[in-house]
Amino acid sequence: MKYLFIIAITLLSIACNTKNEDQKKLDFVEFDFHFDTESNEMPYNFSSYWDTLPTIVDRTAWEFAKIGNIERMHEIWDTKESIEIGLTQEQRDSFGLYKAIDAIDYILNEAEEHQVVIINEAHQMPQHRIFTTRLLEGLKRRGFKHLGMEGYFNTPQADSIMQANGYPILDSGYYTQEPQFGNLIRTAFDMGFNIFGYESSGHANGKEREINQARNIESYLNRYPNEKILIHCGFDHVYEGDMPNSSMGWGKAMAGRLTEFTGVDPLTISQTIYSEKGNRDYENSYYQITDLERPSVFVNESGELFGQQRKKTSLDLPPMGTFRYDIAVFHPRSKKYDRPQWMVYGDRKEVELSFVEENIQCPCLVLAYKKGEKVGKAVPYDIQETDDKKVTLVLDKSDFEIVILNQNNTALKAEFN
Question: Which superkingdom, per the lineage (predicted)?
Fold first, then answer.
């Protein structure tokens, strides 16, 4: 019995020591902090600020995503959704013939035979940016050298600024201010990808925008003939073929125009159809009956992929033009909104921080900056808002500078090693 007691105490000690490694005591000092941007707008605002303004659904959802508030993001975005029609038994049985397999492995295998891969995101979903980030290493091994992004400013200065800094800055774009988008850029740059923006400027309508985006990518392809390119776009720009007339008069989306202009057949990947909503009733009917642990694609015994309005098959949707994509990714639901499990991958882990002893009034934003990147200018690696002086950040093994900022512009800073 004595030995069992000693063993129990030893195990408890190990557990406590392990936990304490993630709860280091930080030495905060007062800090004169400001955001270094050319814009007069605050890149990150407190929840209370957005709660007092008239709700512009898209913008408000994006802003909550930028400060890591996934729950509020979903609540806002759900207001523009509608309840999905349930599946018939025949549809359920048909879907049951498909089995989930790892999406990353499948996509990387398919990418071998393509010069251009185009993957989309929902702009309010950091989860989609993380998935693209996780593809980078495998794509790099398969010869991909360039990353084009809709959200990255398409200016002559953008590339030189990135090269000069070596990390994403707040002025790199609007969507890119969200930490996981910043980490996508940061990871790509560190791996040696050439990064470029291709967004249209001066377009009069949606059709011109799609054409201009495709022309900009075409121009880039002409500069690097036969080299492999990954394009990270938003929503419907990923579709090939003719869009339905109701799609803002586009005719074709960017991906379809790119094929028209270059003859290149891109591998097109949609992340936006089979992803979670705050209210499950708003989720795609097929997605509602899934319960996944990892990003997946569904394949039947013949090797055919499942996906509504896909390139080779069209299940359940009416003939609304011939718009299509190659691969549909099904994402796992968040097991919790406070630091969802999909944020933790590679050497990233949850780190609990408490500053209850510090003399600063909350609510506060807690911003994690990679050591060596300019605080206030760089896109933070992670952001969380807190009312109780406790947060959980998701960080890799790098050294960081942690900044605490409140609504009175009082700021504290500490080293985290």
Answer: Bacteria
